[in-house]
Structures are given as structure tokens and as C-alpha cells.
Amino acid sequence: MTALPIAAPPTPRRFYIETWGCQMNELDSQRMAGQLMQQGILPTRAPEEADIILLNSCSVRDKAEQKVYSRLGEYRLFKRQNAGLLIGLCGCVAQQEGQRALERVPGLDFVVGPARVGELAQIVARRRQGERVVATGFPAERTYDVDAVSRSGEYKGMVTIIEGCDKNCTFCIVPTTRGPERSRPLADVLTEVRHLLDYGFHEIELLGQTVNHWREPGGDLDFADLLEAVATLPGLARLRFITSYPRDFTPRMVAMVGKHENICPYLHLPVQSGADGVLRRMGRGYTRAQYADLVHQLRAARQDLALSTDIIVGFPGESEEDFRQTLDLVEEIRFSGVYAFTYSPRPGTAAPRLDGQIDPAVASERLQRLFALQEGIQKDINLTLVGKEYDVVVTGWGREPGMQMGRTPCHRVATFATGPEPAPLGSVTRVRIASAHTHSLKAERVA
Prior knowledge:
The protein is an alpha/beta fold. The chain contains 13 helices and 19 strands.
């Protein structure tokens, strides 16, 4: 009897996701990865090996948008070796460009906006049947399966509590790309957080473009009530939230920052400028004095609070005196970190129509002066941490052999030697700060 040949097992399909932008984009990528893995498609770190490539994009700055199209051009070349390769543009540039992206990039197979990532499995199936799909917009009913999120390898569980933004700052494209504000019900948030705690996460991060503007749909609860409900869940070691909007804080929310030990002593609070005239043109809705007063209240509620911020340099009409006021505010507040950029005009926003556009060379020179000031402040603050002990959540490996890194409760990066046995990713280990640098801390593990 002739033995039948044994067929080789089929080569598993692979996907590759490249993610740019904020934490909400990171979570969207985890959601898309989970949907693909449910279909038996496995992740790869090499785009040339993939059968599906997803570029999850950010449109906050013009250069990032340009880079998206450049990258799509590179990925199109892989179709010469793999005719069945699917390429999808996702995220905020996808929402912004829509059908134009398909017309601009012939090898692009589908476009998926942030509000439609829960439909990825169906979109891929439609493309396999021959349709080039544009799935954008903000449907009233959206798919969100907490079990279809690939969180393996992550040290924290991210939970979206509010999507979109209604602020309409004159420089910001988020209301266009992420849509109007939409809060998730408290019950849904608590269900997802409990799910992550059962899964073994020590740290939870609540997400939203204006996270502290969360309101219970159809009810009276606000962000202070949500923080109280989440912080008191059994097993939650650390709770973070990002990004907060200055004028949305209430006295109850300020008090809550200092009420529970597991609410981390770190807050990202964008100021954007230290000059009232610039803040008015930005449409921010608060003054420099009001921002500084809020910082005073927050630090009174939580004395060990580390504060970071966003600053836009070279906004239309920003004078040298306006910029000096921003530098003065940075010196006054003493932020633990500053994320600063020169102004970038975005389509559909009001700021490009304002008078007083700043020469790019002037804006760039101002940005370097801001960075130089902040680096000195940041290092001085970090030096005050030498000798202190912290529980850090292990996030990965350091650049030097035998070194690991983790995040302190105040969100600083600490690197430390592994010792006889490396600490597992996502675990908590005790360290003592041995030396300080501008952007990181060197630590030693404490037995």
C-alpha cells in the first residue's frame, strides 16, 4: 500500500501594525490586533512578512501626515512579492482623508477612522470580496468587544472613558478626526476595568481627549464620581488618567487627586501658552492666572504631584513678549516634563486664518530656548529624587546589557540592573534612585 504524502501545514497569515500618536491610538491598535488574532492571523514585527499591514496614523501635526503617505508608498512595494497583501490606513489621518487616500495611493485597500476600528474584521472580509472600503464617520452604535483586545506584553491596561472633543480650540483637528464628545457609561467602564484586573494588570490608565470632562450619559455623575468608583475596586494598585483639560477641573475632582493612594501622583495638564492673548486666540477658555491657580490647588491636594504639559511655540500672533511669558510660566510651575512643538496649521481649523503667522525660523529658535530652559529645570527636579525609594512597574529592557527599566508612580523612567533574576514585565519591584539625568533616573533594586 502506497503511503499518501503528508501535506505541509499551511503557513499562518501574519499582520503588522505601525502606530503613531497618542495613547488612544495605541489602544485602537490593540483592538485591531485582537480582532485579527481571533481570526487566527498572527502578529509579526517584520512588515515584509505580513499579509495585512495597518498604519494607525496621527494627524495632529502636518509632518506626521506627510510621513504617513511616505510610509504607504514604501509598503506598496511589498505587493510585488505578495499579491494577496492588504494595506489599511487607520486612525486620524484616515478619518481626515477618507476617499482621497484611496485615490492618492493606488495600492491602498481600505481606510478606517477611529470610530470604526471595531469593524475591522468585517472591513477585511469586504476587501477580500473585492471592495475597496472607506469606513469613516461617527456612527451612533459602535462595536467594542473587551475580549477582542490584544494586551499581551503590555504593563498597563488602557480604558477609554470618553471619545472625541467639543472644545474646538482654533489649532486642533481632534474634533474633526475623533468626532464630538461621547462618554461611556460608568457600568461599562467598571466592567472593563474589572476584566483587566482579573487578567492580572496592576495599572489602569483612563483615556480621553478631555478625560476629566466625562459625564454619565443621561445622569448626574461626573469624573470625580468615576475616579471614586474605579479607585476603590479591589486589586487596583495604580490608576492614571490622560489627558485632562484645565477648565474642566472642579473642586471635587481636585480633591479626588489626593484622596486615594493608588491614584498616581502624575498629571498631564496642557497649558499651550503662558500668554493670555495667545490663549484667547487659541480658544482655550482659561487665563494664565487661572491655570496657575489650578496647579496650586492640585499640588495642595497632592504634594508629591509631578506635572507635565503641552506647549505650542510660534502660534499666530505670538510676540517675543508672549513667548517670554511662556518661559516665565515654565519657570514658575516647574514641570516634570514638557512636550513642545512649533505651531503646525491643520486643515479645517481656524488658526490658519489668523493674522500674524510666525516665521518658521523664529518659531524654531524659540522652541530651542524653551527646551534648554526645561532641561535644566527637569534635571534639577530629578536630582531631588536621588536616595528615594519607589515601587516601579517593569516596562522593558534598558539600552545597556543587563539593565531593565520601569515607571515610577510619578511617571518617570528608572533603569536598574536585573540582578540574579530579571523582574517579569508588568511586575512591580522596589528601587532606590542612585543618580539622576534629564530624562531618566538610574536606580538600584532594593531587596
